[in-house]
Amino acid sequence: MELRYGLNPEQAARANLDVPAGPIRVVSGDPSYINVLDALGAWQLAREASTALATPVATTFKHVSPAGAATAGDLDDVMLNLWAPAGVELSPIATAYVRARDCDPKSSFGDFVAVSEPVDRSLAAVLRTVVSDGIIAPAFEPGTVDLLAAKKGGRYLVMEANLEFDPPA
After folding, report:
1. Cβ partners under 8 Å of residue 3, min gap 6
2. Which of 5, 80, 126, 131 suits 105 as a labelling partner, its CA being 20 to 30 A distant?
3. 92 to each of 5, 69, 107, how far by Cα in Å?
4. Which residues, listed in sequence order, are joined to residue 65 by a DSSP beta bridge?
5. Which helix (DSSP H) or strand (DSSP E) does residue 79 occupy?
6. 134: helix, coil or strand?
7. Structural domain contains residue 13
8. CA angle, 75 then 83 then 118, to 5°
9. Residue 106 structural domain
C-alpha cells in the first residue's frame, strides 16, 4: 500500500501489508506510516484483551501509544450525556469505546481507534461526534463505512483487521 507519508510529511513511504494474507486491509482513506503503526498496535491490544477477557474491547491510540483501553460496560449519566449522540442507544462495543476514550480525552483527541467487534451504527454515530483519525475493526455493519468515510472531508481512515492473521511472537 502506498502511504500518504512516512514519519514526517516530506518523507515518502510504502508498506507491504495490504495483501490477501496480511494483517490489515484499507477500506477507505490513505494511511500514513504512523496511522499504520497505530492501527497495528491498537488492534493487537484490542484483540488480545478481548480474547483474554471474553468481552468487547476498544482502544484508543495516539502516536503509537495507548491513550485508553476499556471493556464494554455501563456508563453513568455524566458519560452518557457527554458521549452519547441524542437518540442513540449505545451498543456494547460503543460503550467500550466511550469508556476507552474517557480514560484520557485530551490524549485521545485525533486518536486511532481499534475495536474487537464489528462496527455498528451506534459506534459510528459516536465516532462521527469526536475528532479521530481512523478506526480498525474486524468488520463493519452495512452502511457504517460510508458514515465513517465521510468524516474529515472524506479522509477518515477505515481499516479492516484480518482475523485469520496471527502475528509472530
Report:
1. 12, 13, 14, 15, 30, 31, 32, 33, 36
2. 5
3. 35, 14, 23
4. 62
5. helix 77-83
6. strand
7. no
8. 80
9. 27-161
User: d(Cα 97, Cα 74) in Å, to the nearest integer?
Assistant: 12
pLDDT band, very low/low/confident/very high, at 7 (cuts 50, 70, 90): low
pTM for the structure as a whole: 0.88
pLDDT in tens, 119-136: 999 999 999 999 999 999
| Residue pLDDT, tens place only, 141-157 | 999 999 999 988 878 99
Q: Has residue 52 been placed in a domain?
A: yes
Q: Tell whether the torsion through CA atoms of 120, 158, 105 and 83 is positive or negative.
A: negative
Residue 57 DSSP code: E
AA letter at 109? F
Number of domains in the chain: 1
Give 149-153's long-range contacts (Cβ < 8 A, gap of 24+).
149/27, 149/28, 149/29, 151/127
